[in-house]
Every structure is written in C-alpha cells, then in structure tokens.
Amino acid sequence: MEPLLVKHIVERAAICFPQREIVARTAGEGRFAYTYAEFYQRLQGAAHVLDRLGAGRGETVGVLGWNTHRHLEIDYATICKGSIYLGLNFRLDVDALVYTCNLAQVRVLAVDPELLPLAEQLVAAGANTVRAFLLLGDGPAPATPLAPLFDYETELATAPADYAFPDDVDENATVCVSFTGGTTGRPKGCPYSNRFLVLRALTRQSAQSLGPYRGDDVLLIIPPMFHAHAFNLPMDGMIAGAKLVLPGVHPDGHAVARLVADEGVTRLMANPVLGKLVLAAAAERDHDLSSLHYVGFGGDIVPRDMAQRFLAMGVKLRCGGHGMAESLADHTAAFYDELAGADPDAAFTRMLDGNCGLPIVGAQVRIVREDGAPVAADGVETGEIQLKGWHVISEYFRDESNTRALFTGDGWLRTGDVGVRFADASIAFVGRTKDMIKSGGEWIPALTLEHALSEHPSVAEVCVIGVPHPTFGERPLALVSARPGQLIDPAALREHLAGHLPRWMLPDCLAVDDIAKTTVGKFNKTLLREQYRGYHAA
C-alpha cells in the first residue's frame, strides 16, 4: 500500500493546476505572484539547497519568518524530502525559543532579514545546534555575526531545477513540529507525520470542518505559519486548486482588507480581534469585502455585532470550535447557521455560551468527571475535555514527562479544558481547569462572565481572573477595556450581569487601557493573576 505523503498533494497541485496563482504581499505594499508550477520548481531547488546546507532526512529546519512565498517553499521542501519543519514562534521570549531550537536540534535556521537580530540573540543565549543560516530576503545581506550565512536566492539560482522527493519516507515519522505557547511552563512540542498531515488536510475538505474548498476559491493565509493551524492551510487550498494569498510582514487590518479587495479573497480565517480591525479598515478606506463567502474565527468569542456585520455580507460564518496544537488546531467546529436553526437569536446565545459545535471526522471527544465517568449530556454537568483520533498527537516531541502526565492510560489527551456535552452531541467550552474560580466553595467559570460582559455595548475586551480573597478564598476580577468613545462604568456592568447571573457570581470590574496577551494573542492570565493578586489586600 502506498504511504500517505504530503509530496503527493504538492506534486498533484503542480500537475493539475499549473497556472493557479500564489500571491505574496511584499515590502511597501508590493505584490509577488507566481504559479503552482513555478512554486513547485522553486520547491525542488529549495530541497537541494537544504541538502547542501546539511539538513538531511530526519533533521530539523527552523524558520524565523512571516508568511511569505520563501517561507512557504522552505516549509514544503523540508516536509517533502523527509526532514522536520519547525516554524519558530518569534513572539516567544528568547529562553523559550532557545529551548525549542535545542530540543528540536535545528540544523539549518532560515531567517527573514528583519528577524536577524532575534536569531543573533538566540545564538548568544545558547541555541547551539545550528550548522548554517539561510537568509530569506531580497538584496545584499545586512551585517551580522551569524555564520555561515547563505543567501537563499543566490543558493537557489545555482540549485538544480528538479528533485526526486523520496517515496520511501516512513509515513509515521515526524516531519513537522509545532510548539505550544508556553504560558504554563516550557512550550510543549507537538509532532506531526506525513500520515497525520495528509489525513488532516483531507478531513478539512469536509463541510463540517473548513470545507468544502472550491477551485475558484482564494485563500488568505492569515495565521502565522508557526501556528499549528497555518502551515497546513496552504495544502488545503492545493487539494482544491485554490489561489493562495500570503500576507507578508506585519499584516494589519488595513493590509488584510486591501488584500481581500485586490485579490478577490473568498475565504478568511482569523481571530476576532483581526476581524474587527478588517471591518474598521474596510469602512475607513472603502475596501470592498464582497468577495468573501466564508469567514472562520477561532481563539476567542465572536462578538454579536461583528458576527452580524459579516452575516450581512452573506458569508458562511464559522463562529468557533475547540482546538489546540495537539490536534493541529481544531477538532470540533461550530457554524452560525447550524447553531441558529430556525431562530437567529439562538445562535448568538449558544455562541455566548461557548458552544463549540460537533466533533469533526477523525476526532474523538469525551468529557469526563474526575472519576473518569462520562458527564451527562445535559449541558450542565461539567468535566474535562479529552481527545483521541487520527489527528490528535499520541505523545509530545522528545518529552516523556509531559507525555506521561497529560495522556491517560488508554491514550486520551487530557486537555485541561472544562466543558459540557449536549444531547445533540455538540460540546461547549466552559473554561480552562486553572481558570475556574472557587469562591466560597462554589465554582465560577471565568468564561461565562467574559461572554456575558462582552455583550455590553461599552466593552471592547474583557478578561476575568480569580484573585485571592481573605473571606471567600478567591473572587472574580474582570479587567475591561472600553470601545472607542465609550467609558467603562463598573456599576453598570454589574447591573448588566445581574440580569443574567446570580449575584454571588458577579465580579468586581476594573477599567484598564490594555490587557496583557500571550505570544499567540490570548489573554496572559498567568501574568495577570500575579499582577492583581493583591487586589483584595487590606
């Protein structure tokens, strides 16, 4: 039986859709474009370059870079030739990056020019496995102590134009690693094999996941390629022969809105914060977003007003799901039309209640009590969400300690997330185990408070944490930032909540200008708990 290999998807795309475009935003709002056939030719040259620099089969190529065409080439050349691709999260602190580089034993480090100073810091701080550095830019290399340093375009110009990607790669061998954000300790590595990636890409063609993709789709790859979701998205498009658009360096709301308008983007995946920025930029500069027919959000709740604005455009709205790096992003999916049924308001209510939809094909999801028994499918009883399946990892990368701690004896991944199950088999995310606030012996889910507060018209962002209290052990504290032109009135917010929740659950509300976030844009609750731990001190 033929192994499941990523190279077969990439090769097919070049053969079946040779003239389909891949577009990249470049410096100064420039545009680079080439075809699938030209991409595949450069991909083969890239594989020769990586071989020449010493990244053999099973060895790791790290990339410090934005979503550019050169990054895309290195990504797929590495995987197709049987090496290990590691997109480095340049938003992590230096110590965490050094740890990930050394654990993965990065042999070749490819770097965008603007990230060279960070690469220099990594080496100075102890990243000691790199044999060669590869500069992914235009023009002469800037001065740097990194050595040996090679220019990608120069090396590519002398590389052969064909490469025999191997057929004998073990489909179960690791060819890609993504690290978690590391907010609760050192980042954990999630290893993916060819088989894992191919099955994941095929699964995502389903209408119950990200699909169905079409040949006339234009897919904008917004999530950074170090993110578990992003480096697999181009392959989703390749299967259908869709046009791919890469946003380049520092894509903000204006850049994304302009790309949607100029390239006729049909499919947009983003977090709600970027969604707001895109809508604002489109309104400010009259960018036409009418080409969009699918918009998917993840990472946080979708505000009602933003959802309504996208729905008014006639898009299919994916309003959430439960996902993590361990399952290559998502293992359930929630769509507005499915949540709504015959009642549009029901969809918003279920969205605010954290409904994550149904498990997608290949994902097994269970919610269990502390004794391991399944919770009732009543939408009330809570338990830990646990995972297993085709596209759920079975161990952490070179990390026996976390593998032992976070996998059950029968192979289920303990996510640390608290959820409920409904009679229709959908689940809802209630919060992280560590985000449950025990106050006076009763549990308060922070997410429930966040969802309810986010409905108030003055609120831009809200993060609820538990802080020590001399009488109740813990009490909830809501950190709230205001929308432009609005002011936060803590008393008004508590009254708003009183209409939805019992008074013993109501938090103190504190107006703040900004709320600290992690490297992947989530609220940094670990830092915030420490910052506000003395809030109730006498």
Give the gist of this structure.
This protein is globular. Helix 2 packs across helix 3 (69-80). The longest helix is centred in the N-terminal third of the chain and has 17 residues, at 36-52.
Fold and architecture overview:
Helix content is 30%, strand content 26%. β10 (218-220), α8 (233-240) and β11 (243-246) form a beta-alpha-beta unit. The chain starts with 5 loop residues before the first helix and ends in a 7-residue tail after the last helix.
DSSP strand tally = 27
CATH architecture grouping of the domain at 1-16 and 32-237: 3-Layer(aba) Sandwich
Total helices: the number is 17
The main β sheet shows up as:
13 strands, mixed
Task: Name the CATH class of the domain at 1-16 and 32-237.
Answer: Alpha Beta
Report the end-to-end length measured between terminal Cα atoms: 70 Å
Overall outline? globular
